[in-house]
Amino acid sequence: xxxxxxxxxxxxxxxxxxxxxxxxxxxxxxxxxxxxxxxxxxxxxx
Length: 46
What we know:
InterPro entries: YrzI
Radius of gyration: 23 Å
Shape: elongated
Number of helices: 1
Distance between the termini: 73 Å
Pfam families: Bac_small_YrzI (PF09501)
Structural class: mainly alpha
Order of helices and strands: H
Helix content: 55-70%
Largest sheet: none
């Protein structure tokens, strides 16, 4: 009886965001919040 076992090690490194990416993400988050507020305002009218 032969037992063949393979071991894999996976290392995940967290990628650092650039200043430009951080600013973009902040802008996107702000726009999403504004849209949510607009949707809530429209729903209250009905």
